[in-house]
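Re: your question from the hallway

Yes, I did run it. Sequences:
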Amino acid sequence: MKALRNFMNKVEPSFRPGGKWAKLESVYDGMETFLFTPNTTSRSGSHIHDGNDLKRTMITVVVALIPALLFGMYNIGYQHYLAIGNSHEGWFTMFMYGLFAMLPVIIVSYGVGLGIEFIGAQIHHKEIQEGFLVTGILIPLIVPINTPLWMTALATAFAVIFAKEIFGGTGMNIFNVALITRAFLFFSYPSHMSGDEPFVKVDSILGMGGGTVVDSFTGATPLGQVATSVGEPAMTNILGEPISCLDAFIGLIPGSPGETSMIAILIGAVILLITGIASWRIMCSVFVGGLAMGALVYALPSHVYPASMLDPVTQLCLGGFAFGAVFMATDPVTGARTKVGQYIYGLLIGVFAILIRVYNSGYPEGMMLAILLMNAFAPLIDHCVVSSNIKRRARRVATKE
Amino acid sequence: MLSKKNKEALFNPLSKDNPVLVQILGICSALAVTASLEPAIVMGISVICVLAFSNVIISFLRKTIPTNIRIIVQLVVVAALVIIVQQILIAYNYDVSKQLSVFIGLIITNCILMGRLEAFAMHNSPWPSFLDGIGNGLGYTIVLLIVSFFRELLGSGTLFGFQVIPDWCYRHGYENNGLMILAPMALITVGCIIWFHRAHNKELQED
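Structure:
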């Protein structure tokens, strides 16, 4: 530790104006604050002192994502070995297969995103913001595993530039950057984002796995199957065997890596709630909104909309609903900030997600669009809450006089 | 013929006073017709014609139009010209007129037209008005061309309907970007052009 500190002190002058590496000053600042607690203190006014800075907040979210990440890796391997008819393979092999499948996506996502942020910081002579720490891990979790890497790279670049840097960087963005990445992919390359192919990797990686896919193989996610089913919705796993709500809860079903397991997501939710990073108001109200809308839809089933025959609890377990509710909707930058506003914001996300899922056959998964829509409305909700508060207080003052 | 003032009327709208990039007018049609180059060019030429001739006609009439009904008179002139353009298109280029559908008719409501008639033709003689109409129409057309070039190239892999991205790329996993065909990406493309335009023109930057 001491040696590192001394080294950082030694190289510091060459990064300051006039030094050899003055152009890379923000890189030095970024590294220094990443390694050590910054020793700058406030000079004016009174401040609340808290050791929980932006970096630590971000890292807590990354930690909360680890269960979903690990389970996602295992599930990629599990689905693969199931597809090639070798479901008795050991769990470690399955996990390693998933690890090697996901590693390139993680590297591409961080490489592209951090690269753009570093360049942006150099151009504007600003400190490097650490907002991409979370986004970089969210992207591999919500992008289907078979998406070509160049598409992921392009979408990440698009999202970082047009959803974040243009608005002023970390903390200023209107829309969730990871979701913009997914939305870009979704509308640009729809054939890679839904249907039979995207969610189950069937080719071998580094000599692991690979083989002929069994005859009864179907790669569609349960929600995808429901959207295209006729009559009673029937959900099957990739071998065509029926699955239940419990399977979706445990998570051994095809889907984007992070979204399948409700258990792993709930562990993450507990971490976020105990540390106080995520707003429990938003998280709970998303689930309540989803349940309420799901119950309403379930009460009015229709054969035109097969998803309306799913019971509300299954609705919440399937697809990206839980992942979106826990990790995306609670993003403090793009979500509502007033307490009342957070309830409204969360409820509407839940309601819209189910609404889009059930009544719009083009989009079997509604969570992404629901969150992006409410991201756009969050400032308006906050504005209404604040101004109604002002009005109420003004009235109170007026009656006292 | 081309005094300094006339030159300004003709050339300023191309870049420094571009109706789309600087005055942010006519955005709606710029988004709607730019999915490929051919309809964009036809739309641009139509707007140039309508704008130039309605400017001339209004400029001739400018002293006889009563102020309180001037908008109606302007609309009648523009509408008549738009209908002529539309009929010519249907007669000679039916496919493109189908692609452009209502947007030729909607030239009537294009803000650029009303803006130029009100701001220029009502106060200037016919010849400068004509040049102003040509200039603004060209400025609009240039933007349409740039936007539709990128949208057609990246969205369909073609230019003027001819494939320009080689098969080799498609075989190696390249795919056309479906989002470029949709309106949101048109808006982002226009936004990028405005961004580059302002970045290169210091006098246009506001604080």
